[in-house]
Amino acid sequence: MTRHLSPAEISKWMAGERRRQSEDHLHECADCRGEISRLQETLSDFRASVREWSHRESAAAPLPVRRASGVLVASRLRWALIAAAMVMLAAIPIYRANRHQPKLESSVDDAVLLEEIDESVSRSVPAPMERLTPLVSEGSTAAGSQTQRKK
Prior knowledge:
151 residues; 2 domains; 79% helix
């Protein structure tokens, strides 16, 4: 291999994906071996500092760890599902009652409207002209009597 290992190839090698070509190149190339050894030292230093920090923090303030057993989690889940089912069962009648209520209100409004229409259609004279009906009815009887006299 005439070229050096790319950063991606070095990362794969560090992650454990070691190809035969990369191995051969590392045996021949001191620059790539040096790069990998620097990277390994850096990662080793980082690992050591994380472990040291972790030990310091765990010794400073141990936190109580409460682990839920599988039975406890299953019991809580069961009660949550039961509660959800009860809420749904209680909500269904309320939903159905509220769904029919607007229909009842609209049917009452429709009945009132139909009564008003029936009342206005059944009149022989429109409401604003009702005061004039005595004049027209007197005039029509007078006109009718005059036509009978002419005959």
